[in-house]
Design brief:
The chain is mainly β. The protein has no helices and ten strands.
Length: 132
């Protein structure tokens, strides 16, 4: 799968979003899964896209599931920087992104050996449709 680097301010700008706009007009949820490791571990991710008067936000939650395997789950939205679930099996991590442009953003989950290791056990990408 070809990945396109995303820089801050370009397509997706990583922001700390404490609370979502109370006047949210619409919301959609997408989910993806990695392949299962040889030891039975796998990763899952969900994206909640919310559009409203304050703009559009995509909140990515990635979880490390299944049997402990020494790998962490990572999720990519739109080929940008990964969100890591690095606390062992059963751990999750969340990041929110302000969406600047309409488009289809692929969501993919993989497992990784350490913070800078190679991604393995890639799952099938899921298209996340975002039209702010």
């Amino acid at each position: 799968m070809r990945r396109t680097a995303i820089t801050a301010g370009a397509v997706v700008c990583l922001t700390a979003v404490a609370a979502l706009n109370a006047s949210t007009a619409s919301a959609a949820t997408y989910s993806a899964r990695s392949a299962t490791s040889s030891k039975g571990g796998y990763g899952t991710a969900s994206v909640v896209v919310q559009s409203g008067t304050g703009g559009t936000t995509a909140t990515v939650t990635v979880c490390d599931n299944g049997a402990p395997d020494g790998l962490r789950a990572v999720a990519y939205l739109g080929g940008g920087e990964p969100v890591h679930a690095a606390g062992g099996s059963g751990s999750c991590n969340t990041a929110s992104y302000r969406i600047m442009f309409n488009g289809n953003y692929p969501l993919q989950v993989a497992l990784r050996n350490g913070a800078t290791g190679s991604d393995v056990y890639h799952g099938t990408p899921v298209d996340v449709y975002i039209y702010p």
